[in-house]
């Protein structure tokens, strides 16, 4: 499959914020001294009075956002995923999730595709942590077009939202102006043998895997499940009924991410054979993003291998 | 809401202390010491100074009060009940299943609450958020944040201290209920925060120090703070933990232990 690189999802976020700032005077943006990296700086240049650079203090930033939301503003709060989620988890819990405030947490530098900066800057736990907070919608967009649409949706959605964006340029999946809804996945390919479910950068890998599988006679569905919470139950049950075999792939720690979420729903409602492609309970390291994705098992060949295993198991296991 | 004169406040403060004792005795758990130490501060705010309307708790121009020391919930609930946000009988449902009077404030459940608190150190940040929204909306309301001395141990308090001053946040008035005790022991023994006033001054706050049980001093300090422009204000109110009940004063047993029925009767006999 041809890899056409488009903007990073963080770039799409930054541009979308400027659009939101124009449309909605209640949108305010907070950053913790990483606005050049998270791309919120563009909003700050355009709407300085509604942009608050809080300095390197994530906990205070989330509390301030909670107060702004309680007073009727729509705060978008950004930093690197690992810092924002981990350093202000108590504030996300107490000041945002518990009172159900309308705060939008949009992080950059999700996953190991951060690359050379190394493990301290790479967030592999954020989806697990954020889905644990009651009431939060949690999303991992797969390309720039989808990021833009979901950030607009997040602004319209009343309640707390988490969106993870990434650092590297991202393969283009969708045509410009495709629309998306929170909680509604996208079936990109339809096949009868196995369903490849993914989000973020792994959506492109799943599409590439589906082509390789096709060449080997295996017809795969591909589902972009950009929203981890709430899960698209209808789409997942349709796929379960048709293929009876899932491979769930994500740029995240295997404990508690998209795979865990899908497995819980499927095991309760319609068990199928399941395989997982994710980071195997370890921290990554410095390296080029592509090298790291390869080393930690997050590329198309790994999905192909798991898909074949799922198809083989399906023949043996009655589910 | 009709405001009380300074002369009318002492009897209101006493009624609030009586309710704190009654509700905690009925609940059988909770935090008397830090509720009683803040009673005079909240009495001046809710009945003498703040613009608010219990019939319209979401009035956009209201002054906001955040009880950052969420374990002091009983004093806040008593003040809200006396102001008319809900019937006073409800106070006796404190901490019981289904009650809007949760063990620590839950803003979804009770009108008049401006924040959900109980994890220490968070209220000042939330207060900055309200105050920044006020500035954007060009309104004139004040945001009051009641802090405990214990929560000045928290790093987030000092993040907020730096940020509020840097962003020149005014109409933000913090009151430190400096009763000198935290849960395990005195602040001096656990994590001494002295020199407290110098710390806040060095963070570029407008700082006042008062006797937190002198109603005239509380009111005067708050009025002075209202006039300050381009800076946040910290009123360090020196208080006595358990104030008003002789056997609870400076007795840290009553930090987080409710009075027994017998202790409550003795306390109420003193609060007449």
Description:
The complex is a heterodimer of chains A (319) and B (272). Helix content of chain A is 42%, strand content 20%. Chain A is of the alpha/beta class and 319 residues long. Chain A has 2 domains: 5-171, Thiamin diphosphate (ThDP)-binding fold, Pyr/PP domains (Rossmann fold, 3-Layer(aba) Sandwich), CATH 3.40.50; 186-313, Rossmann fold (3-Layer(aba) Sandwich). In chain A, the strands form 3 sheets. A 7-stranded mixed beta sheet of chain A has the order 3-2-4-5-7-6-12, sandwiched between helices. Chain A has a 5-stranded mixed beta sheet with strand order 9-11-10-13-14, with helices on both faces. Chain A has a two-stranded antiparallel sheet with strand order 1-8. In chain A, helix 1 runs parallel beside helix 8, helix 4 packs parallel to helix 6 (89-97) and helix 10 (233-243) crosses helix 11. Chain A starts with a strand and ends with a helix. By secondary structure, chain B is of the alpha/beta class. Chain B contains 10 helices and 5 strands, in the order αααβααβαβααβαβα. Chain B has helices at 9-27, 32-37, 39-49, 73-83, 123-137, 155-166, 187-191, 196-202, 215-227, 261-270; strands at residues 64-67, 143-148, 172-178, 206-211, 233-238. Chain B has one domain: 3-Layer(aba) Sandwich (Rossmann fold). The A-B interface holds A 28, 49-50, 52, 54-55, 57, 59-73, 75, 90-91, 93-95, 98-100 and B 60, 106-108, 114-119, 122-134, 136-137, 143, 155-156, 159-160, 162-163, 166-167.
Radius of gyration of chain B: 17 Å
**How helix-rich are the residues of chain B, as a percent range?**
40-55%
Secondary structure class of chain A reads alpha/beta
CATH topology type of the largest domain in chain A: Rossmann fold
CATH class call of chain B = Alpha Beta
């Amino acid at each position: 499959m041809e890899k056409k690189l488009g903007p990073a999802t963080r770039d799409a976020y930054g541009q979308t914020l400027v659009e939101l700032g124009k449309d909605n005077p209640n949108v305010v943006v907070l950053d913790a001294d990483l606005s050049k990296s998270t791309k919120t700086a563009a909003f700050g240049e355009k709407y300085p009075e509604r942009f608050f650079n809080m300095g390197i203090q994530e906990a205070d930033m989330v509390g301030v956002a909670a107060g702004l939301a309680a007073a009727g503003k729509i705060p978008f709060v950004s930093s690197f995923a690992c810092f924002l989620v981990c350093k202000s988890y108590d504030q996300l819990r107490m000041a945002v999730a518990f009172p159900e405030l309308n705060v939008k947490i949009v992080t950059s530098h999700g996953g190991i595709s951060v690359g050379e900066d190394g493990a301290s800057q790479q967030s592999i736990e954020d989806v697990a942590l954020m889905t644990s907070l009651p009431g939060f919608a949690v999303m991992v967009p797969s390309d720039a077009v989808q990021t833009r649409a979901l950030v607009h949706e997040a602004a319209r959605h009343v309640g707390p939202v988490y969106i993870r964006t990434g650092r590297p340029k991202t393969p283009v999946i969708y045509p410009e102006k495709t629309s998306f809804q929170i909680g509604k996945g996208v079936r990109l390919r339809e096949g009868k043998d196995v369903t490849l479910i993914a989000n973020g950068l792994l959506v492109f890998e799943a599409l590439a895997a589906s082509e390789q599988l096709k060449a080997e006679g295996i017809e795969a569905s591909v589902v972009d499940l950009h929203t981890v919470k709430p899960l698209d139950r209808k789409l997942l049950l349709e796929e379960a009924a048709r293929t009876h075999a899932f491979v769930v792939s994500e740029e995240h720690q295997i404990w508690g991410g998209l795979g865990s979420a899908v497995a819980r729903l499927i095991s309760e409602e319609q068990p199928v054979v399941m395989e997982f492609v994710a980071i195997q309970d370890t921290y990554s390291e410095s390296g080029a993003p592509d090298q790291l994705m390869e080393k930690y098992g997050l590329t198309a060949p790994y999905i192909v291998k798991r898909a074949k295993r799922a198809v083989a198991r399906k023949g043996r296991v009655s589910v | 809401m009709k405001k009380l004169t300074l002369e009318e406040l002492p009897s209101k403060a006493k009624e609030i202390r009586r309710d704190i004792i009654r509700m905690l005795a009925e609940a059988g758990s909770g935090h008397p010491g830090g509720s009683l130490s803040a009673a005079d501060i909240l009495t001046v705010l809710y009945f003498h100074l703040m613009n608010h309307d219990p019939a319209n708790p979401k009035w956009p121009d209201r002054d906001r009060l955040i009880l950052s020391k969420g374990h002091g919930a009983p004093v806040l609930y008593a003040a809200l009940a006396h102001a008319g946000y809900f019937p006073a009988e409800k106070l006796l449902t404190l901490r019981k299943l289904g009650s809007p009077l949760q063990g620590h404030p839950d803003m979804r459940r009770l009108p008049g609450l401006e924040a959900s608190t109980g994890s220490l150190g968070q209220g000042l940040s939330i207060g900055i958020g309200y105050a920044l929204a006020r500035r954007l909306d060009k309104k004139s309301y004040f945001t009051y944040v009641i802090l405990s001395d214990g929560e000045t141990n928290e790093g987030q308090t000092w993040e907020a201290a730096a940020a509020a001053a840097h962003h020149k946040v005014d109409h933000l008035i913090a009151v430190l209920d400096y009763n000198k005790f935290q849960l395990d022991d005195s602040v001096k023994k656990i994590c001494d925060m002295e020199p407290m006033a110098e710390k806040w001054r060095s963070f570029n706050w407008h700082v006042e120090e008062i006797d937190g049980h002198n109603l005239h001093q509380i009111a005067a300090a708050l009025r002075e703070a209202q006039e300050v422009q381009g800076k946040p204000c910290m009123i360090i109110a020196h208080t006595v933990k358990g104030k008003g009940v002789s056997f609870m004063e400076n007795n840290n047993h009553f930090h987080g232990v409710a009075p027994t029925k017998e202790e409550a009767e003795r306390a109420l006999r003193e609060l007449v």
